[in-house]
């Protein structure tokens, strides 16, 4: 969501403990890691915090839309069903 903004020049992230490893290898943090560093670099000295908040809001809207579409699909009962014969 952040990189969809045309005013973003660079966006990167790393795990808190793996910062040096990330800088050396561009590694994704482990899923159990509860810290993450995000760097957002904007064109024209725009606010990276505003960009992050907008991206999080857009992501929240996307998740709500997917959830609503999923619930609608379930209520229409028009999906492939499979019965396991054991």
TrEMBL record:
What the entry lists under Pfam families is as follows: RNA_pol_L_2 (PF13656)
GO BP term (any one): transcription elongation by RNA polymerase I
SUPFAM superfamilies in the record, alphabetically? Answer: RBP11-like subunits of RNA polymerase
Family, per the entry?
Belongs to the archaeal Rpo11/eukaryotic RPB11/RPC19 RNA polymerase subunit family.
Q: Which organism is it from?
A: Antrodiella citrinella
* Protein name (record): DNA-directed RNA polymerase RBP11-like dimerisation domain-containing protein
Domain annotation DNA-directed RNA polymerase RBP11-like dimerisation: ranges: 1-66
- Organism phylogeny: Eukaryota, Fungi, Dikarya, Basidiomycota, Agaricomycotina
Q: GO CC: one term?
A: nuclear DNA-directed RNA polymerase complex
Instruction: Tell me if Transcription is a UniProt keyword of this record.
Output: yes
Name the source's superkingdom: Eukaryota
Q: Which UniProt keywords apply?
A: DNA-directed RNA polymerase, Transcription
């Amino acid at each position: 969501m952040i990189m969809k903004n045309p005013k973003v020049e660079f966006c990167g992230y790393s795990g808190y403990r793996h910062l040096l490893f990330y800088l050396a290898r561009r590694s994704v943090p482990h899923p159990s890691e509860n810290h993450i560093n995000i760097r957002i670099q904007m064109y024209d000295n725009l606010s990276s915090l505003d960009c992050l908040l907008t991206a999080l809001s857009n992501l929240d809207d996307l998740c709500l839309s997917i959830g609503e579409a999923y619930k609608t699909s379930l209520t229409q009962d028009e999906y492939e069903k499979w019965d396991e014969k054991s």
